[in-house]
Write the structure tokens for this entry.
Amino acid sequence: MNDPAPDADEPDRTPEPSASRDDDAFVTPGYELQRRASLAKDRRDFQALDSAVGSARRAEGLQLLALGRLMERTCGPPAGPPSRDLEFAFRSLRLEVSARYKLSEYAAARLLNIAHLAGTLFRSAVNVLLAGEINSTNLRVVVEEGAPFGLEPSGPLAIKRSRYETAVLDHARIEPSNRLRPIARRLALEFSELNEDARNEEAAARRSVCVSDLPDGMAELRAYLPAAVAYGIRDRIRQIAKSVVLLEAKSGPAVPEKAQDPRPRKRPQVEADVMADLLLRGVTDAGATPDPADGDEPIGGSPGSAAGELRPALGIGVSAHIQVIIPAHTLGERGEARRTDGIPELVGYGPIGSTAARELAGGERVWDAVSVDPDGAVLSVDRYRPSAEIRRLLAARDLHCRAPGCRIRASKCDLDHTKAAVIGGETRTDNLAHLCRGHHTLKHNSPWKVEQQPGGVLKWVSPTGTEHIERPPSRVRFRTARDEEPDAF
């Protein structure tokens, strides 16, 4: 039940083919018979996997229920008062689970806590896991993001928790955990009706910087910052690093000691060096600042200029690009709050407070205000710095790569013609979708098929014939919770 950090960056490591091929490239003498035989075997193996996965999910559900009962007898209900005796009882149980199942005590504690909450407060989610309809990582997301509803098994927040659970399970059945988490976070905020701005302010008051020692002469520097600030810092570092990489590729290392190293610096190394230089000295060791117009070509010298002749990269002219999507129904004519059931979102992170979003919208040069209908479909996008209308609309609709399970943000993706332009595909919103470079090349160089249906829905068909329906994430993110609630409430 261990899952990686769900909202971490997802670098695309897919090797790119040197040239594109069309589907006819797969039809060679004898190939079709071999391919059909192989696909038949693939289908049988996937059927066996489907059966095994279903059994594993039921087993995980039974495991959670058993661990939850152990926690209930050991520690009482989740909302019970803490005591020293209960602490030692929990530590004893944690040690036994750790020793019996060869887990670290940290992993055992996390598993016990999830089981305690799931078995008591999120029983519907456990039942869906037992039925094999969701996996254990998605159940964990449902439970963890349900924290705003507290621990009481009854009362007003418990009723709201039940509504949240019903709504989020619809998404948990079809979304991978990395996409489910921001959806669950948004639904929890909407159904709980808690003051997210107050929560943001309380969390921001705990901002800090710390260093942890690591082996081999290294250490880890961590900063606890508001999400918009952290993403802005990361983006600015990446812009400067991109300029340095381009400069070194054309002119060689600008730092004398680096010139003796035959191994060129990789992008992550350059990003770390840029951050260290900026924090320690306010300048970078090499290069020029990128032109804000395109971010690709260093300025301050010609491509053939020696690195030392370029002006230092002080970071002047390099500003962070953070994209905040604000459903238009959350803003009034002058930017004041008008409705509270639309949650602004920092692209690449997830929901943020409406106050922070309005401040960013007023201060940043690039932001999107998205008009949506009650079902969450994007109607229009207004932007402070206008670009092509189709790109604006599709960026708001797609948010990230539209391949199943991929969450690389739209700004790092290609706009792909679902039906290729060379065979008559039109450049229209109903024939375009964002694909990261890896999935874009896979689409054109493998038997995978993609069809765009009304409303921006993509139907992916695997080589074995399995269909995967990929809905526009904006239909999920921007749909208001109260449109899903029954009238009785």
